[in-house]
Amino acid sequence: MGVKVVRTGIGAPFTRFIARAYANGIGAVAIIYPTAGGASSHVRPAAPSVGLQWAEPSLADADPALFKAWFAAQLAPLEAAGVRLTAFELGNEINGPYFNGDFLPAQASGRVLGLSDLTNPNDPEGRAIAASCRSYLQVMAALKRFATVRQ
């Protein structure tokens, strides 16, 4: 038995760990954030009073081209070492405020948003989350194209 796959970050702090694990037959699921490499123009500040312990960039600011450049730089040392990652996890729980800076405590209503809320031009909360989802999907498409070319 034993460990077959680990879930880990990617980049300089993790490269050696991933390479050593790979050399010992352990795969890696790399957690990557859609806002990586971007300018992070809008950042939701930490709000400990409502349980948000850290600041979080706005997912709507995610930039597919900047993400792709950042991601290529993170993969280069792994590829040079002959490492093949098992999978990528793009973002983590982006449907809530902990990992998506587009959820602002001041505007959050606590309601479950449906498609009609996301397309309602009179719903600022719905519009913000819809923009967030569009950016996420654009980065996901860029990641898919990037990964497909490298296979």
Radius of gyration: 17 Å
The strand order across the widest sheet is: 1-2-5
How many helical elements? 4
What distance separates the N and C termini? Answer: 29 Å
Structural class comes to: alpha/beta
Q: pLDDT below 50 for ≥5 consecutive residues: which ranges?
A: none
Mean pLDDT: 85
Quickly describe the structure.
By secondary structure, the protein is an alpha/beta fold.
Write the layout of secondary structure elements.
Elements: E1 5-8, H1 12-23, E2 27-32, E3 43-44, E4 56-57, H2 64-80, E5 87-90, H3 115-118, H4 124-150
Parallel strand pairs: 1-2, 2-5
Antiparallel strand pairs: 3-4
Structure write-up:
- The strands form 2 sheets. The chain has a 3-stranded parallel beta sheet with strand order 1-2-5, covered by helices on one side. It has a two-stranded antiparallel ribbon with strand order 3-4.
- The chain has 4 helices and 5 strands; from the N terminus they run βαβββαβαα.
- 40% of the residues lie in helices and 12% in strands.
- The protein is elongated.
- With 151 residues, it is of the alpha/beta class.
